[in-house]
Amino acid sequence: MPLPLEGVRVLDLTNVMAGPYCSMVLGDMGAEVIKVESFDGDTSRRFEPQVGGESYCFAVLNRNKRSIAVDMKNPRGKALVMQLAAKADIMMENFRPGVVKKLGLDYDSMKQHNPGLIYASMSGFGQTGPYGRKGGFDIIAQGMSGIMMMTGYPGGRPAKVGIAMNDIASGVTALYGILGAYIGRLRHGSGQYLETSLLEAGLAWSIWEFGAYFGGGELPTATGTRHRRSAPYQAYRSQDGYVTVGAGSEKLWRAFATQVCNKPEWLADPRFNDPNIRVKNADALEVELEKVLTTQPTAYWVEKMDAAGVPGGPVYGYDQIMKDPHIKARHMVVDIDHPKIGPMKTLGLPIKSTGALTQIRQPAPWLGQHTEEVLREIGYADGDVREMFAAGVVYDSARSGAPATTEQE
């Protein structure tokens, strides 16, 4: 059975995390993704650890793609990208706003040659507005979106989310925008331009906080691991670490108090006998729960909660979750062979389906690995290919006599 995006051509000019995450998922769904890089390559190619001269982090994020290295400031390089765009279904970029316009590779230029093109831009703050020309990274967006002020513990310094949350949010937002636009083209026949930003994509995930702020004037602040609307719902100390408990509803609270902790008196305690009151008395609740939970190790409490039907789990380090038998059973760590790294691990597919939906088909490419292959596919003869390399228009890091690197904006 073919994958859903088999035959869909994606021209990917993105860099680092947000855009490459989006194009990786499109590739997982079967799209043919051509990653266009400068001679220096994607910035994340320089990230450690390096194995066999290749960044392991880059390799995890850029599977199911082919790489061509092009000097887009060279008129011939720009013409090559335009040739590829003329045959693409989707084009993606995450340069600072205004750069693709200066290069002549913006949507208005591209749609003249390909009116059905779906063109997606990702940036720090969007293409318009007072901050539209500012550059932006994940940390900037986390700080400005209020997320850092509501992360960490009360009274502490602002804390970023442990992963590049706004980057991934932007990639996911662009992904559903692209898929929606592609479905629209299938139904109505026209392409379109779409754009999102690190700031807006992350802000769009603050659903409960938005409702509480505009509904009741509540300002979301740091609460550690607690939920703002439910208790007990946090990580509590156990004898040997921490255990998470999700028992905010009355049914789950009763089961937790009686079957897990053997404390039926908690049900009559006026500090805890109503869901909203428990939230207001979360400090006292934490004290009482930890008197009990610190008497046994985490594994003991997880087993008790499982038996009582109360959601709960251990607080793992990353090394622990990577070794957990459930993660192995769900195939979230996959072995793949990379042409330079050799045998390596890559993240598995988080969607499981009854039909063909996603697949890891090929490892990430080295810089410019498919430059010659792509040139030949669009009609360049042997002599033309050699001349393009010799003239420094295109590049492959594995070819001898490679030109000096160039800097893209």
Automatic annotation (TrEMBL):
SUPFAM superfamilies in alphabetical order: CoA-transferase family III (CaiB/BaiF)
Lineage: superkingdom: Bacteria
One Pfam family here: CoA_transf_3
Record keywords: Transferase
Keyword Protein transport recorded: no
GO molecular function, one term: CoA-transferase activity
InterPro entries: CoA-transferase_III_domain, CoA-Trfase_fam_III, CoA-Trfase_III_dom3_sf, CoA-Trfase_III_dom_1_sf
Protein name as it appears in the record: CoA transferase
